[in-house]
Amino acid sequence: MSLSAFRYRALESSGKIASGIIRATDEQDAYRRLAAAGLTPTKFSPVKERKPLFSGQRVSSADVADLTRELNVLVEARIPLVRGLASIAEHGDKPAVTALVRDLAAQIEAGEPFTQALSKHTDVFGDVYIETVRAAEKSGNLTGVMGHLAELLERQIETRRQLRRALSYPVIVLCVVAGALAIILGWVVPKFGATFASQGVKLPAITRFVQALGASMANYWWIYAGVLAAAIASIAFAWKTPSGRQWLELFLIRIPYVGRLIIAVTAARFARIISISLDAGLDLIESIQIAGKSTGRPVFIQQCNEISDALRRGEDLRTALGETPYLPSFARRMLQAGKDSKEMAGTCNVVARHYERESSHLTANFNSVLEPLLTVFLAVIVLVVALSVLLPMWQMVRLQR
Fold it and tell me: What is the pTM of this model?
């Protein structure tokens, strides 16, 4: 049965007035709950539920990281969550975050556990975050785990920023090249072609090819646009289906350099979440399942579920890990060594740092790998266009002689 929120005023046994928010099925249930707590209610008013919290806005990953860091400070300082959250909401400068924090505070004040309040916002925090906090709450290690979660979120944000910076250069170059080619094929080459034809120059094959390409793009641009849109839609559709997503994931990790980057990011996140989950009090089997889910890769999630099932059957970790393509052999050996030495959380932390450094290095050097390929690609295009113009010009000069 769903609970509603009610704002109340009540008298304590000492005669003082108390106020707050309580969750109950109705006003009578709220009255009974307050009476059981030794309060005499004098006023009730329903609290408007904040389901559409953000009114078109959203809480970003950076907001969640900042909030997690602030929550960690509250827990470390032993400040009551309701009071601390109220302070965060009071000084918040983003309406979406302020509304979220106020909702969390209202639920906790109404008697909901912290993780239960978080679970009302899985679209913001995610299942992995909530399950990790729930385990930490049970084990009494909330302080350390909240700090680790904040660091994890901050690393993810920085990785995404590095990727955006790395991809911005090739995207800009390709857009400029596409625009220049459209002008050359649609205007420059046809003009030269008409001039050469008027002089009786027999156009070489490369010029005829470029002219035909330009004419087809000008006359049948809608076909090219349709093919491009269909290709993008097909990839997007395949990404949303289990079999299509599996095929695309396995295809991507086979691409040189890109595959190494994906594997490094996945291994780092997997090891980091296992380390955090173990510190939170979860066992290894649960930690592996949560870590697999955190990667967001269906193929790897399924493999992690199979690894957990194998461990439940009594298989050792080395056998259970098998040959999953998302975990390099070094990571598998280190995980087994950590289990053997009873230092699994610390070992996973070391593995995570190793692959975080590797993924950061690969991302930073992405442009240095891509630039030679772009240079060769641009050189081929320039050569073809230049020859399509220069070869007829040489023939025209010979005819005039």
Answer: 0.73
Q: Which domain holds residue 8?
A: 4-46
- To 10 degrees, what angle do helices 258-280 and 344-364 make? 150
Classify each residue of 343-369 as buried b or exposed e, where b means 16 or more C-beta atoms within 10 Å of its C-beta: ebbebbbebbebbbebbbebbeebeee
The pLDDT of residue 52 is 43
Q: How many domains does the chain have?
A: 3
pLDDT at position 271 is 93
Quote the CA–CA distance of 35 and 71 in Å, as a whole number. 32
B/e letters for 26-43, b = 16+ CB within 10 Å, e = fewer, are: eeebbbebbeeeebebee
Residue 111 lies in a domain: yes
Nearest-angstrom CA–CA distance, 164 and 278 = 32
pLDDT at 192: 79
Task: Give the count of alpha carbons within 13 A of 132, CB side only.
Answer: 31
Report the C-alpha gap between 192 and 323 in whole angstroms. 59
What would the pLDDT profile of 174-186 be if each residue is shown by its tens digit? 888 888 888 888 7
Quick one: pLDDT at residue 48?
61
Q: CATH code at 147? A: 1.20.81.30
Q: Up-side HSE of residue 199: CA atoms within 13 Å toward CB?
A: 19
Question: Are the C-beta atoms of 111 and 10 separated by less than 8 Å?
Answer: no
**Can you tell me the distance from the alpha carbon of 42 to that of 19, in angstroms, rounded to the nearest whole number?**
10
Angle 68-298-358 (CA atoms, 0-180°, nearest 5)? Answer: 60
